[in-house]
Write a structure and sequence with these properties.
Number of helices: 7
Pfam families: CN_hydrolase
Largest sheet: 6 strands, mixed
Protein name: Nitrilase
Number of strands: 16
Number of domains: 1
GO molecular function, one term: catalytic activity
Organism: Lachnellula suecica
Distance between the termini: 57 Å
Strand content: 15-25%
InterPro entries: C-N_Hydrolase, C-N_Hydrolase_sf, Nitrilases_CHs
Length: 417
């Protein structure tokens, strides 16, 4: 399919095992799927006629998409995103979550090569990042409305006032297709600063949905106690944390660089341990769940072997990139209960509909489902309600600036002041 096509009604079915290959420059003809009818419970209440956005159920089904993008193709990845929402909705999901910077990709290359070697990657990232009011977001919003699902999706966001200012953003969309939370990551972490600009406090909000009050933070923000507390203070019941497929911090051996005289200089990294994505991510998410007495959804990206091969091939040093990505630990997608304990989930066979229990997804690409009962988060508040009965509001005072920052304020008419 031509990348210039913007017909998002033509969407791929299922995951990579249906023939889709997440990679650079692929051009498959993508199949279409029929319209999915939502479950009757999502319609207006037949007794009180209250629209579903205002009915909060105690129990709901969450679907965390542990999936790969079509790397640096916003249109193809959006089509896949739309398809996955339909697939999750067909399996009765009420809340569908996608990883950090799912569209168009997470800039993992910035961890492995010098900035002077990544200009090509940055140019493509800037071109393939998407506008909050662009056609890709309109397609996802329309799908959320059509399927009656709440959708949380990570994007690399570009803005109208610059050709290269990008933000690492997470968007929560309601069942009516409206954007409920537009969050830009407060501070890009480590090598991410080479791609994204710092965000602001505008998106430190919870979305009031039929699945409860939902908040979201991106990757390293889940280390920031003030960002987390700002969501707790708004009654957050479900916390979404999004993560990349991998986050390289160290390499086991030296990278040899030619001196131009037939010899080489070694730049040893030493024996530093690489980042343990699973342990680091779960520790932070579990701490938040325990402190806030809320449910947790860790939604992590996935990279196929073809993704890795394509990223390596597009780099200035394919063998080095393949080595680093091959030895870097992968993150995991999982659910946590209101005590921070792992909440068992399951996957659904796309052919037979059979459910197989899974505590987490890491190596395989799939959608992980789990039912959450918000009533199970009440008891813990008796012990530690850190925004209420277990807090000293006379001692501590947190002020959060939620204004959206713009580069300039323009006055077109002088009022004489």
């Amino acid at each position: 399919m031509d990348d210039k096509s913007n017909d998002y009604s033509q969407v791929p079915v299922g995951l990579n095992n249906c023939g889709l290959r997440g990679g650079l420059g692929d051009a498959e003809e993508l199949e279409t799927i029929p319209e999915v009818q939502r479950v009757p419970s999502m319609k207006n209440c037949s007794v009180c006629f209250i629209p579903p956005a205002f009915i909060m159920a105690s129990r709901f089904l969450a679907a965390a998409c542990h999936v790969s993008p079509f790397v640096l193709s916003a249109q193809k990845t959006t089509r896949k995103c739309v398809s996955l929402i339909h697939q999750a909705a067909k399996n009765s999901a009420n809340l569908v979550i996608f990883p950090e910077s799912y569209i168009p990709a997470f800039p993992v290359w910035s961890a492995m090569l010098a900035p002077t070697q990544n200009h090509g990657f940055f140019e493509r990232m800037a071109k393939e990042s998407i506008y909050i009011d662009g056609e890709e977001m309109r397609a996802i919003r329309a799908t959320a409305k059509q399927t009656g699902t709440v959708v949380s999706v990570g994007i690399s966001e570009k803005v109208r006032y610059s050709t290269a200012t990008l933000f690492n953003s997470n968007i929560i969309i309601g069942t009516d297709g409206e954007i409920l939370v537009h969050h830009r990551k407060l501070m890009p972490t480590f090598f991410e600063k080479l791609t994204w600009s710092p965000g602001d406090g505008f998106g430190l909000r919870v979305a009031e949905t039929h699945c409860g009050k939902i908040g979201a933070l991106i990757c390293g923000e889940n280390t920031n106690p003030l960002a987390r507390y700002s969501l707790m203070a708004q009654g957050e019941q479900v916390h979404i944390s999004t993560w990349p497929a991998m986050w390289p911090t160290s390499v086991s051996g030296p990278r040899k660089e030619s001196t131009g005289e037939g010899s080489s200089n070694a730049s040893p990294v030493g024996k530093r341990a690489n980042y343990d994505n699973v342990a680091a991510n779960k520790t932070r998410a579990a701490a938040h769940c325990f402190e806030n007495k809320c449910f947790g959804i860790l939604c992590t990206g996935h990279l196929t072997e073809s993704n890795v091969a394509d990223i390596a091939a597009a780099s200035s040093d394919p063998s080095y990139i393949s080595k680093v990505m091959g030895e870097t630990s992968r993150g995991a997608t999982m659910f946590l209960d209101a005590t921070g304990t792992a909440l068992p989930g399951y996957i659904v066979d796309s052919t037979s509909g059979k459910k197989t229990q899974k505590e987490f997804l890491q190596v395989e690409e799939d959608i992980l489902y789990a039912e959450m009962d918000l009533d199970k988060a009440i008891e813990g508040k008796q012990y530690h309600d850190v925004v209420g009965g277990y807090q000293r509001l006379d001692v501590f005072n947190l002020k959060v600036n939620r204004s959206r920052r713009e580069p300039a304020t323009f006055v077109d008419h002088d009022d004489g002041a």
